[in-house]
Specification:
Layout lengths: L6 H6 L2 H55 L4 H70 L5 H98 L20 E10 L7 E9 L2 E5 L7 E4 L6 E4 L8 E5 L4 E5 L3 H31 L13 H6 L5 H6 L17 E3 L4 E3 L1 H10 L6 E3 L7 H9 L2 H8 L16 H13 L25 H4 L16 H6 L10 H16 L25 H11 L2 H9 L16 H8 L2 H9 L14 H8 L2 H9 L14 H8 L2 H20 L8 H16 L7 H5 L3
Antiparallel strand pairs: 1-2, 1-7, 2-3, 3-4, 5-6, 6-7, 8-9, 8-10
Length: about 775
């Protein structure tokens, strides 16, 4: 270690020592200035670097936004996403570099300045102080007179003590100087070397990153060259087309208008027409008209929902109109209204009139062909979805939800990508999913798919039966009906983006649904009729029943001594139910003998007319595949039939007596409180018919038991009058639980545990042992 100031000279306190001290102190002061300046410059550089990183990050976010905007262009989206990820990595590397700079330069040198230089300054102050004391003691010792012995001894003692202290502090000061002079080199070099290593690591990381990106950039460059060539070719083609079109004669452009009844998009003809309003001012407005799907429609803007002028062209006529002031007018007349239209020229008017007339003839021909096909169809089967699963229920008893659901055909692999052993399910669709597809289904929203775990969640018995009634094969026959015709392949496991696009197209846009077909699940032999006899259900054959899970019948209700004809409208309520059932099923009446009921194929023709009617009829017949198909075709789950007391599909499911059908409709958004024209909701109908399992289900789903029908009867009064002990128990428990929650302020909470246990027991019994709820006759005597 090189000694800057000599210790021997320190003891002598010679002029050389003082000169050396002066030189060292000046050097240290200059070093402090340089280090302070370097630290301040480092702080500015770090702050500027962080601002650069922040601005660079915003720039990368802009690239990501541009990539998302270009989602329809795979090449642009992929390249921009890859570049943004690489640039983000460089930002991370920059951030690491600035953090290392802060530790190596700013923190390390600041520590050296604040600690080591501060110690040097403190030692300097002590040295200067003791030097002054020593000089003062020397002067005082020199001035003492020899005859004053006492003063001479005192001055000598002070001088000796002062010299001793001076030597000690001076040696410490010299030691501090020499240590500082040596340490300054190591501290400066150490901080700078650390800073340079940080740069080395930064550039190595950047080099490695772009070395990996290099092959992709090279391929993209080659692809870009091809794109430039293609763009130049397209430009030449467009210029040629532009030149060709520009040379055409547009004076007779209206003669080029043609119609095509076999157009692939279903639009026979379209174009602008003026339409006379039906208001008092008879104003004329220009609208975009089109003939499609045997209808005449128009819209103001492209995104507007088309307004239907004529719902069925078979019911209208078209004629010239010469009794108005405007030229080129024609009128489309239907049984309910007429529409005055104006073309831009006589030739356009003739073209529109001919297109409407041709469309009318085509509509008649198509409807006639459909009728012939319906006549040739076999009658629907007399089986039932639920009865076919009785043996399955016995076989699967005691097994877990995963085993039961995966045991359904097609459910052993994911419905959308085919990955084996799926552990998730969409309960409103009735399908099984892998974990990746389940996440995509969740992003669609619960109005499209409700996802639940087969292993982690609790499964209600009615929901588990619903899953066993449908399955991947059934749903895919509906939602993937046209996938082979369209030449589309299902995504493979691991293809996240392809899965998202495919699932959205399948369930949200419903691109693969065959909307031209009547049904994806034609009738099969062996299915039961809408209502079974007790012999078919393995019960007593004394009376016909109305539902699968509860043994109470309308006939037994009417014959019961608790149902008297003069009792406050209850008998009339039961009679109305009979009348409603009779009108709903037409000749297929519940009260006719089995052999006299007409074939239920009469219901199938409604599938061709309206998805709502298909859902409505299938809900009564317990045909879950047909119900799923109707929903896929756009049926409103809460559609009300104006010809049958505004009854809904959920009310039809009650009348049909199927607990699983009710659960399917509720899971797909059916309103549990929607009432018919007589003010009766599903809970009213289930109570009148004695369907205990359905009453339990509706109460669990939030049915309003305080609602009254047009005669003022609520479900509880109906159940009391009918002496149905099970339903009265459920209704009173639900009412007590509701009152308790309101009194305790527990709004939105499930309620008392005893209440939940009782309802859970009823649900289990209704789903797995419905015969145990057939206690109406026994309990009516005790009630």
């Amino acid at each position: 270690m090189k000694v800057t100031v000599d210790f021997e000279e320190c003891l002598k306190d010679s002029p050389r020592f003082r000169a050396a001290l002066e030189e060292v102190e000046g050097d240290v002061a200059e070093l402090e200035l340089k280090l302070d300046k370097l630290v301040k410059l480092c702080i500015v550089m770090i702050d500027t670097g962080k601002a650069f990183c922040a601005a660079n990050k915003q720039f990368v976010n802009g690239i990501r936004d541009l990539a998302q905007y270009s989602s329809k262009d795979t090449v642009v989206e992929t390249s921009l996403t890859k570049f943004s990820e690489s640039l983000q990595e460089m930002i991370n590397f920059h951030t690491i570099l600035f953090d290392q700079t802060q530790r190596s330069i700013k923190a390390q040198l600041q520590t050296f300045v604040k600690e080591d230089l501060r110690k040097f300054k403190d030692a300097k102050k002590q040295f200067e102080k003791v030097s002054e004391e020593k000089e003062s003691a020397l002067v005082k010792n020199a001035q003492v007179q020899r005859n004053k012995q006492h003063e001479v001894e005192e001055a000598s003692s002070i001088l000796t003590a002062t010299r001793k202290c001076f030597r000690h502090i001076a040696l410490d000061y010299v030691l501090q100087i020499n240590v500082l002079q040596s340490k300054r080199r190591s501290e400066i070099l150490k901080s700078m070397l650390s800073f340079m290593y940080a740069h080395l690591a930064f550039f190595h990381q950047g080099y490695d990153l772009f070395s990996e990106l290099g092959p992709y950039m090279k391929d993209l460059g080659a692809q870009l060259d091809r794109l430039v060539v293609d763009a130049a070719k397209e430009k030449r083609d467009m210029e040629q087309k532009h030149s060709t079109i520009q040379q055409k004669d547009f004076s007779s452009d209206d003669t080029k208008l043609e119609y095509n009844v076999d157009a692939a998009n279903g639009i026979v003809m379209e174009g602008y027409l003026f339409k006379r309003a039906s208001n008092a001012f008879k104003t004329w407005n220009r609208r975009w008209f089109s003939i499609q799907n045997n209808q005449l429609v128009y819209q103001k803007k492209f995104k507007d929902t088309p307004t239907v002028v004529v719902e069925d062209l078979r019911l209208c006529t078209v004629k010239h109109c010469e009794d108005v002031e405007r030229r080129f007018c024609f009128e489309v007349v239907s049984p309910t209204k007429s529409c005055m239209l104006q073309a831009d020229s006589e030739k356009l008017r003739q073209a529109w009139i001919k297109a409407v007339q041709t469309s009318i003839a085509t509509a008649y021909r198509e409807k006639g062909e459909e009728s012939e096909k319906l006549d040739k169809k076999s009658s629907p089967s007399t089986g039932s979805l639920e009865s076919g699963n009785e043996s399955k229920e016995k076989l699967l008893k005691g097994e877990s939800a995963l085993q039961r659901v995966q045991g359904i055909p097609g459910n052993a692999s994911c419905c959308d990508c085919g990955l084996p052993d799926p552990r998730w399910a969409s309960i409103n669709l009735g399908i099984t999913l892998c974990i990746e597809c389940s996440g995509i289904h969740r992003s669609l929203g619960v109005h499209f798919s409700k996802v639940r775990s087969l292993t982690l969640d609790t499964w209600e018995p009615e929901l588990l039966k619903l899953m066993c009634e449908l399955g991947n094969d059934v749903i895919n026959r509906v939602y993937e009906a046209k996938i082979e015709k369209m030449g589309i392949k299902k995504p493979q496991p691991g293809q996240r983006q392809e899965k998202e696009a495919y699932i959205k197209a399948k369930y949200v846009e419903r691109k693969f649904v065959d909307k031209d077909s009547a049904s994806s699940s034609p009738p099969e032999e062996g299915k039961r009729a809408p209502c079974q006899s007790r012999e078919e259900k393995g019960l007593s054959t004394s009376k016909p029943v109305l539902e699968d899970h509860v043994g109470t019948s309308v006939q037994s209700l009417g014959a019961d001594p608790f149902f008297k004809s003069n009792d406050s409208g209850i008998q009339q309520c039961a009679d109305d139910v009979r009348e409603g059932l009779s009108s709903v099923v037409s000749a297929n009446s519940l009260y006719e003998p089995e052999g006299e009921r007409r074939d239920s194929s009469v219901f199938l023709e409604f599938k061709h007319l309206h998805p709502g009617l298909q859902l409505y009829r299938a809900s009564y017949e317990k045909r879950l595949p047909d119900m799923a198909e109707a929903l896929a075709h756009g049926a409103d789950v809460n559609w009300a039939n104006p010809e049958e007391n505004k009854a809904t599909p959920l009310i039809q499911a009650v009348l049909g007596g199927s607990l699983v059908t009710c659960e399917f409709l509720l899971q797909n958004g059916a309103n549990v409180n929607q009432r018919d024209a007589k003010g009766r909701g599903p809970l009213h109908h289930a109570t009148v018919l004695g369907h205990t399992g359905q009453v339990c289900l509706f109460l669990k789903r939030g049915a309003n038991q305080h609602a009254t029908d047009e005669e003022g009867n609520d479900p509880l009064s109906i159940a009391v009058e009918a002496a149905n002990a099970d339903i009265v128990t459920l209704l009173r428990l639900a009412r007590m639980n509701e009152e308790m929650r309101e009194s305790e302020g527990l709004y939105g909470q499930p309620g008392d545990e005893t209440y939940q246990d009782i309802f859970r027991d009823f649900s289990q019994m209704a789903s797995n042992n419905p015969e145990k709820l057939n206690r109406f006759q026994q309990d009516s005597q005790k009630f």
